Amino acid sequence: MRIEPTGAVMGAIGSDVDLSQPLSDADFGDIVAALGRHGVICFPQQSLDARSLKAFSEKFGGLQVSVSGQFTHPDQPEVMILSNIKEDGKPIGLADAGQDWHTDMSYMDVVGFVNVLFAEEVPHRDGKPLGATVFANMRAAYVDLPDEMKTRLKDAICVHDFNKFWENMRARPGSERPPLSPEARAKRPPVRHPLFLTHPITGEEILYANPGYAEYIEGMDRAESDEILTFLFEHQLQDKYQYTHDWAKGDVLIWDHIGTLHTAKADYRPEEHRKMLRCQVYADRIFEPAFVQDALSHAGAA
User: Fold this and answer.
1) Taking the complete model, does pTM exceed 0.90, yes or no?
2) In what residue span(s) does the TauD/TfdA-like domain sit (predicted)?
3) Tell me, what CATH number does 236's domain have?
């Protein structure tokens, strides 16, 4: 297996590996190391089904299972279907484009480690792929923060709330989402995470706050907290930190939630079909030093 950096602010391309087959320890170690360095890795021209996607993804940690079971693969509940396709007038998958910048699962006590997507159908227009996914590099964003802000916010705790994201989606024109029920709110209470987080693979500091879920900084007047978060959100989304992945059928894209933000471009029409299979991986193992050390000890061994 080879993993070559894109030369951009982030991103790498993997080749000479079949992800439908079990990974060697060396290949797994190289992928973990590359996620820490590059944030996003694309493995083109893969051929996976739901079972092999699950097998690859669960090497990195526990897999999220939808509570509702909606839009999951019928044989593999850990595999979500993302799609704009309808059959008999009903959507077959969850529409994931147009959700603005966020980090999946930052609203949970055990945050997300990686997202793994396999492209089954990619829309095109005039020969160009649509529905790109755009990423932002939170290591680079942290490095460029003013030193006085790094010092002042060194031990700051940020509260993340799923309801913030939900309400933002409800406010969109044409949305039919109801408010979260008290029962749903109870299942997704606000959670606390460090504003500056030490990345478990690289040991480097990253900015762990995103516009989708980060609600306020603990212990601050709300107006002051809002002012700081507004600055951080604008800072982290500068073009110089962004990397765009244009999809092709057969791509497997894996990205690190801890050190990146992402958004999907909603530039395709309902008749321009897009379908992805997705696994969400918890950060339930990557923060264990022994897990990281074991993975990195095999990196470069092939």
Assistant:
1) yes
2) 4-279
3) 3.60.130.10
